[in-house]
Amino acid sequence: MSSEEEGSQQLGGQVIVTPEIIQDVCEWLDLKMGTGRYTFGLAFELAYHMVARFYHVHLIYDEIGILEGTDPRSSRTKDTAPFEKPPLLGLWHKHHFQPYFIGKNLRNELNYSFNKSIKKCIGSKGEDFAGILSYDLSIGAYRDRSDRMELTGQWIVFEKDIKDKNYYLSLGEHRDRKDDVLLRKKVTRYKIIDILIPVNIYTARK
Prior knowledge:
Blueprint (H helix, E strand, L loop, with lengths): L2 H5 E4 L2 E4 L1 H14 L4 E2 L1 H13 L4 H12 L12 E2 L9 E5 L5 H20 L4 H11 L2 H9 L6 E7 L5 E7 L4 H20 L10
Helix pairs in contact: 2-3, 2-4, 5-6, 5-7
């Protein structure tokens, strides 16, 4: 049995996160860290998602590794950007892609390229027309967006210190201003908890 299976429990639909699964998450995050650091709150969120299986957490680890320079691959999601308005002003975010976001990415891409796909099919007939169009509106659209590194998803929220090192704070979702207020409050709580509960109680990090 893997450490993930040993530390994960779902009883009657309730997600239970154990110290073992938090330790497993911290070990993965430590592997991805370069000069950055992370909150206990972020580790707990990732542990929750590892148990609940709502997010594929290794896709999040990979994005963090790319930001830290410990993963040589290129990100296929939108580049890092600062939040420009309160209440998240001063924080940064990086998109992490999840499979359930394929539909939204296709919709966004087709808003941009649908007419081009139709023009590409002009002159084709029957099965050729259907084949070209169906490919362009699905696999082709996803490939083009990925190649431009513009895949959208949910957020990894972080801030930069005076030495430009990243402090990974929380996961976030972009929905409306009310959620932004709640996200700011959550980030503040996580930073306070980090003072009270050092992350390295779950890891070998010093």
